[in-house]
Design brief:
single chain, alpha+beta, 3-stranded mixed β-sheet, 6 strands
């Protein structure tokens, strides 16, 4: 029986040794894999660094393009707003230019003789309201009578030589001129002396 126990003990030790050897082999295999992985990790690390660098460059490029596009869009909005304002002002000036002949006709109507005082007073009130409306839009008459001729404001259609007047003095206004701010809506049509 003792021999049997010895054999069993030896078998158990052999099995334990085998198990230990197997475990050792597994651990050694894992260590080898880790060592291989560490060497490969270095390669992977280099590869990862390159990929990260490439991605950073792409991100910077994308951010740069985004910033340029945002600036272009901002410029576009500002330019569009300026163009819309310019269109509005041009349209307003065109309308005001087309209204000026009506103003001329009102003045002619007021200059005509009228026996009905109430009617004449009504026309004068409408004329005043009309001129006040134009003044609200910044339309003002270009002073011409007795002024020195200015080709930027006046249109000379006649010329006379008369020593009673100064050189380039406007002696008669045929049609009143109007301006809005610095823009001339209609030049004054005038007669210039000397």
């Amino acid at each position: 029986m003792e021999e049997k126990e010895k054999v069993n003990n030896q078998t158990d030790e052999t099995v334990e040794t085998c198990e230990t050897s197997e475990e050792t082999a597994e651990v050694e295999a894992e260590v080898k894999e880790e060592k291989k992985g560490f060497g490969a990790g270095k390669k992977k690390s280099d590869k990862s660094d390159k990929e990260i660098k490439k991605l950073k460059e792409e991100l910077e490029d994308t951010q740069g393009r985004y910033m340029r596009m945002a600036a272009e869009y901002d410029n576009y909005k500002k330019r569009t707003a300026r163009e819309m304002d310019a269109r509005y002002n041009d349209a307003k000036l065109d309308i005001l230019k087309n209204i000026l002949p009506v103003l001329d006709n009102f003045e002619r109507g007021m200059a005509a003789e009228c026996s009905d005082g109430a009617y004449k007073q009504g026309v004068e009130l409408i004329f005043k309201q009309f001129t006040d409306l134009l003044a609200q839009y910044g339309v003002e008459e270009i002073e011409a009578q007795g002024q020195t001729f200015d080709p930027n404001l006046h249109n000379a259609v006649m010329h006379i030589d008369d020593e009673a007047y100064g050189e380039n003095e406007i002696v008669e206004v045929f049609q009143k001129g109007y301006k809005q701010g610095d823009k001339v809506l209609r030049y004054s049509m005038v007669k210039v002396a000397n």
